[in-house]
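Tokenised fold entry reproduced for everyone:
>
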Amino acid sequence: MTQEDLFKKIIAHSKEYGFIFQSSEIYDGLSAVYDYGQNGVELKNNIREYWWKSMVQMHENIVGLDSAIFMHPTIWKASGHVDAFNDPLIDNKDSKKRYRADVLIEDFRAKYEQKISKEVEKAEKKFGDAFNKEQFLATNPNVIRNVEKINELNKRFVAALEKNDLNEIRQIIIDNEIVCPISGTKNWTEVRQFNLMFSTQMGSLSEDANTIYLRPETAQGIFVNYLNIQKTGRMKIPFGIAQTGKAFRNEIVARQFIFRMREFEQMELQFFVKPGEELTWFEYWKEQRMKWHKALGIPAEKYRFHQHEKLAHYANAAFDIEFEFPFGFKELEGIHSRTDFDLNQHEKFTNKKLRYFDPELNESYVPYVVETSIGLDRTFLAIMTYAYNEEKLADGTERVVLKLPAALAPVKAVVMPLVKKDGLPEKAREIIDNLKFDFNCQIDEKDSIGKRYRRQDAVGTPFCITVDHQTLEDNMVTLRYRDSMEQERIPIEQLSGIISEKVSLKNLFKLQA
């Protein structure tokens, strides 16, 4: 199965099993906007809870915030979004399709990286245990040639980005003969900048209304509340403020399912530190955030750090955690040392001091900030991508199973009466009524037991509990494990303890310690 086929199956599976629907589908949909169905919303909530508790509950010096989506419009002037929150766009004259010029170049560069990976794979198969990857990368002529092409492209690309030279960005596309994925032609327009913020009007009459913006990020809500939280919470540096919430970007080139959307959710931490200590904390949060991802049980090779080639105007260090999606390694989370840019800007625009008085130094200063910003929707997609498995079983049949981390699974256990009579449904209901105080559980009575198992495998339910006639006599049930499909007979009173041990977020927190 190709990666493209895998991605199509994940999209189809997400709809068929109630994870994600196209927004406004009965009206032919709204591009790059999605709704989370009954299973999707549970998985999304669980991911959010995992992030929130990892940040706030596991750190004594981090607190939470829920700031408004509507904010004073001058905030976005101060932050630079009004003047500089742009994407470089280019159109293909033949296909009439619009693309982000920087993404076209990045995708082209990724082809060289794929060539290097293929050379490594061939050599690993050829030499087996004797293969020395480091030596191979340093000496193989094909690898060296492709690395030189990547370095040459990077040098030119970064220089163009730093100068905001749109003509040079277009010329890079022309010189490298980058074609439109639809038409296959190189008939490109000029590159233009496009601001990504959604604007709207606040006021009862249009002539009196003020233009405001839907926030393109959640971070600014933290910065403008920094002093409120520091004072009311008596917070001492270093300390952090965490927030999750919706953000909005008018993506012209929205694509790849929920990877790039116009309405999405962020999970962000702004960590306030003493000036001069920001890079030490930057390294700390790089390590912590990678541990958070790996605790989910997804192999380490699915993740990698990517250093920013061009730093944002506010940063003095920036790395991305990238995940290997079916369409390649792409950004999942950004970790940035934002310096004191944001607080200084808000001081400048408000004429109000946003300083921290340090009792140890007996002086006031504007804190520096280290940020971690992760897309909740992208994390959802990453987890779904890895969890989706098609398995051929020993009896020759096949099953589709979502091997979701048990702590994140939408439904933790499903109780299945073997038949819909003889008191079995009532016994199943009794079990549900005991378990529902601790776990999200359901009852499933329709179809054969085998079909019910397959249905629950497809939505990632870790445990299936079968109630049969023997249960009425010995008060024992059959517990089936999703991943291994093994079954065991256990007393009903042990169910809660067994399930709790497997689905607790505590297991994930311990892996990060």
User: Anything to note?
Assistant: The chain is about 40% helix and 25% strand. Residues 63 and 241 are 5 Å apart (CA to CA).
